[in-house]
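pls read this stuff:
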Amino acid sequence: MAMVAGEASGDLLASLLLKPLGQQVSGLDAYGIGGPRMIAEGFRADWPIDKLAVRGYVEVLRHYFEIAGIRRQLRRDLLGHPPAVFVGIDAPDFNLDLEVQLREAWRGQKRPVVHFIGPSIWAWRGKRIEKIARAVDHILVVFPFEEEIYRKAGIAATYVGHPLADVIPMKPDRAAARRTLGLPDHERVVALMPGSRLSEIGYMAESFIDAAALLHRRDPQLRFVVPMSSAPARAAFEAIRSSRQTELPLQIVDGQSHAVLAAADAVLVASGTATLETALFKRPMVIAYKVNALTAVLMRRMGYIPWVGLPNILAREFVVPEFLQEAATPQALADAITFQLDDEPNRRRLEERFGAMHETLRRNTGERAATVIAGLLDA
């Protein structure tokens, strides 16, 4: 079985699928592009996941030739030695083109092409569903409203729940997380999560650090923790931190993002899967995002809904604040975090909303997805 995951969240999602799939499919050999969590489940990474971890039109153009070269080589390998099934894990800009080519080449053969996590066609780039129809034999979706959208377009789809809802406990243990990170029980902690991609850190870290500096001046007892997904991400963040020349009680940890979220009293988070993780940990948050100005213009023109953060999209309203592009100033972010820290009725309301969201998404996703894929192999 060949798989391609393109970022840290995809690495987690794929790893949760690999274990139950190995139990259902004897002699499973999984290989392709993946990260450390997948490798821990026996996956063979022919290319590291960091090669694909780029977001935004302009940012992708800078790495286009390297990414295109990887896709060409992978396609040649898969066509020369076809796997029993191909599973693309998110990363639609990379995977969909590859999936179209594989599905066309394998037409008439029993080699299904599966995509795990549907692209956000309900948010923007809706015409992409036509390409998805050409690319996949089956799509596994993680939000309940998505199944009907794909089925109406003639695409076989199964709602499998969101795997993060299975991994994250309904009642996170804040005290245990603080012990793990060496944080005191009595002090308030703000988590800074500027993203896992180098491009995200480049756009977000400065505003996050400056907002933390403002918060610290208001309350010198605040502590800040930043989880970093990789050594390059940590180096990029530390370089930006040094350039700000500000003294902060800021702890950088390698990985351990879930421990950081469990330990936090509030979270300043870049838009993406981390916003859903924050909601599943029932933590008040402020969502921010910046990209290249041209990328932002193109995305705004193609957007269909007024929210970018997954908790707001699922709730169909602004349950937590979002600050995008020029609105994501350190002052605005600091003010919003102050509210999330200090308003107790708001905290209780968010815990209730996020708890209901968690129940809806908790469906034993890895097992369900593995069952669908194993069924396609047996068909």
In short: The first helix runs from residue 8 to 24.
